[in-house]
Every structure is written in structure tokens, then in C-alpha cells.
Amino acid sequence: MRRRSLAVAVLLAAALPAEAAEILTRPSGRSVTETLDRLQAQATEGGFAVVARVPHAKAAKGVGMDLRPTEALIFGNPKGGTPLMACDQRIGLDLPLRALAWEDANGKVWLAMPDPETFRSRYDLGTACDGPIQAMRTGIVRLMDKATEP
User: Fold this and answer.
1) Considering all CA atoms of the chain, what is the largest pairwise distance in Å, rounded to the nearest integer?
2) How far is CA 54 from CA 68, 74, 103, in A?
3) pLDDT at residue 62 above 50?
4) 24 by DSSP, 3-state: which?
5) Torsion sign (Cα): 102, 46, 75, 84
6) C-beta separation of 25 from 110 below 8 A
7) Of 27, 16, 17, 47, which Cα lies nearest the Cα of 135?
8) Cα torsion at 13, 115, 145, 31 (round to 10°)?
9) Do residues 98 and 113 make contact, with C-beta atoms less than 8 angstroms apart?
């Protein structure tokens, strides 16, 4: 019985949309690089500092391995992150923000970022952090939408 319950839970989790899996995901009609270029430009215009850009596929190639186009962008703004860290400094494990663009096996490009709403259950965030979490989520959604719009 326990195995069956575990199997059902695993199947249900796999069937949930990406949004329910703590990740915000958007399809993009552009290449991985173009998608992240647009996200980086939007973030910079919005006052975010880019910490790093990680070309995963290029790194894989450097060690003789193949990986479909995949790049990450790490960026943040202390005005948005500091109020959350004041509630629980461990949230620094999730900040600065990260975005990942990748090309799937069918050639479709995707952009994903962690959903800040998940910080509520992961950390000891009281109601004082409701506003900053909502503001961060709104900003992320706006950045992702602009980066992936046609």
C-alpha cells in the first residue's frame, strides 16, 4: 500500500504544470541567447544588477560533452531582496534571482525562474514579507513576459 501511495504521488507531481512545481515558465519564440539577452536588457533597465551569465552548453562543450542550448542569468536588486532577507536571512540561498533559458528536444525555447511564492513555505517569512514577495513575483512575471513576447 505504501509503495502504491508513493507511486501515485510521484505520478501526480510529474503531471502538475510547471507553475505548480514552484517554477514560472514561459515559451519563447527566440533563441536561448536572444531570450536571455532580452531578459538581461529588461532587468538592467529595471535597476537590477547582473551578477553572472552562465553558458551551460558552452561549458559542456569545453569538457567534450553535448548539451542543447542552455544558459542561466543571475541578477538582483537589493531594494527587492533585502526586505525578504530581513525576514529570514536564509532566503539568501535563493537570491539573487536566477533565470534559465533552454532549448528542448523539439527545438522549442523556454524561459523559467523560481516562483517567489515558494519562499513562504521554505522560510520563516511572516506577513511582513507578503508585500515584498508579491512585488518580486510581479516584477519577475513582467520581466519574463517582456523577454518572451513576440
Assistant:
1) 54
2) 14, 8, 15
3) yes
4) strand
5) negative
6) yes
7) 47
8) -70
9) yes
pLDDT of residue 21: 58
Q: Give me the percent of the chain exceeding a pLDDT of 70.
A: 86
Q: What is the pLDDT of residues 36-48, one digit of tens each?
A: 999 999 999 999 9
Per-residue pLDDT, 33? 98
101 near 28, Cβ under 8 Å? yes
Is there a contact between 94 and 114 (Cβ–Cβ < 8 Å)? Answer: yes
Radius of gyration, alpha carbons of the chain: 17
Task: Give the per-residue SS3 of 81-97.
Answer: HHHHHHHCHHHHHCCCE
Which burial class, exposed, middle or buried, applies to 22 when counting CB atoms under 10 A from its CB (0-12, 13-18, 19+)?
middle
pLDDT of amino acid 121: 87
pLDDT band of residue 125 (cuts 50, 70, 90) is confident
DSSP 144: H
What does DSSP assign to residue 30? S
